[in-house]
Predict the 3D structure of the following.
Amino acid sequence: MSSAPFKATVNEYLEDLPPQVQSRLYTSPATCLAIYRLLPKLAKFFIMSMVFNENDVSLRDLDRWVQSNGKFQLNEAIKSMKSLHLLIEGRSEQPFMINLNSIFRSSFRNALTGGEVNNSFGNVVENEHEVVLPEMLDQYAANKWESILHFMVGTPLTQTPSRNVLSLLQHSKLMEENNTGELQITNEGFQFLLQDANAQIWTLLLQYLRLAETLQMDPVDVLNFIFMLGALELGKAYSDSHLSDTQKIMLQDMRDYGLVFQKASNTSKFYPTRLAAMLTSDSMSIRSASSAMNTVLSQGTSSNSKADDTTAASDGREQDGTQVGIAARNIPDGAVVLETNFKIYSYSNSPLQIAILSLFVHLKARFSNMVTGQITRESIRRALLNGITADQIIAYMETHAHPQMRRLAEQTLDKKLELDPNCKEGLQILPPTVVDQVKLWQLELDRIINYDGYLFTDFDNSQEYSLLCDYSNDIGVLLWKDDKKRRFFVSQEGNAQVIDYAKRKLKKK
Amino acid sequence: MPRARKGALIQCDPSIRALILQMDTDRNNIILEELDDTHLLVDPAKVEFIKAELNRLMSQNIYDAMDEEEEP
């Protein structure tokens, strides 16, 4: 398995666009601002220094700004700006003279100083009577987004996301159809669930972009819209009158992801949610959708019952939602304690966290602020058969380990180092017994490997044997051979070829 | 004249091979040919049965914390 789909960030996607498409992108001030926000810090600094300077700049000057220990960052910054074609050769065409992309410069200036922005930052509609509260938007976004994640982990009774979302999930290989035609989470889907919300949204949006290209949607339109969403203000209404047709279609899709909200009565206006505002900011104030949900839960008692109804596991604990939210505030959501006897406790009241745990844990009881469970051979096997690897399970538990477990592990390591200063052991946050056992269970699955095919036997002499054996080895279908007893095994697919070859060669004699 | 025989090649370590041999003596006609210490030729239709049976045999030797408590 590979984690490749998640490594592809939006920056990489932008860098891969042809320069003509990039130039068209840069005509939108909002997009320029968003791209600027996505750049490394040093690149931001360089752009700022050049944006109001028409003249060429020498690369050496940039170099002089940077201390000798910052060369790596300098190279990174230059590389990222060059691959986005923000930095171009200077007009004087002398070596090492550079300048800012002129389209980007003028748009970016407009974005900063508020010149002609061509509606790229959206059209605010002021209406006193139709105010939508940020809390309501947060809840809407969390609900939409969580329902997608819930659907992925297969929580029973959740409402199914719209057809578009489903096809996107399938297209991005986060889910796939199993034999019975139902959608099932894939290996990549599990990795996807372990990302923070921002990375998850971008993963989906990048897939959306790829899908859009096959649907003949203009990537410039799509990107402009995504970046515009990132620049809009929470709680304000925006009109869709200036949007292109492509963007109006997108608006529907973004509504399904919870990025924008529209009133059913009036679809000509839309309200961006916090998920949209998060797109181009690097502040990670919202750690994950589920923690955002928890804030919502702890804010209003009325809202918590709704969220909890989505899990079948909820057992009449709706009333204590507020209490729990306060008690669990200083511990990160979903903190996991794992004991050497394979018992696991997770301090979480988020249905989603619990659903993720239930992918590989046999859950036993649910309390107001925690769930208890047991890791068993059966529960791990079920996860392994679903394509989740032992390493992923271990990594998940490690990143979600309770601070107490981390502290305990640090103490143990300190003691070990006191006894034996040459001790090379790393920090073991999870009990090694459990980690090893989970890995052993994975190995156990592969105790036998089977291949269908044909066994060739009864060769009259070693020439015949080696002739056929060598041939099947050459075409790469040989799976096993025994020179002494003159027999070998070829795969099902290669068999016909070997028999053809045998008929031709052996008849000649 | 050489002969080609349809079958499923199973690759495993010797301990698993011993378990499969045991299965064969109990139920017969699973193994078509014993190839070497780590390979067996078996009936392709029986591969799933072998896997399920191995799973059952292995789980007998594993400590399952669930057994101790709360037997329903």
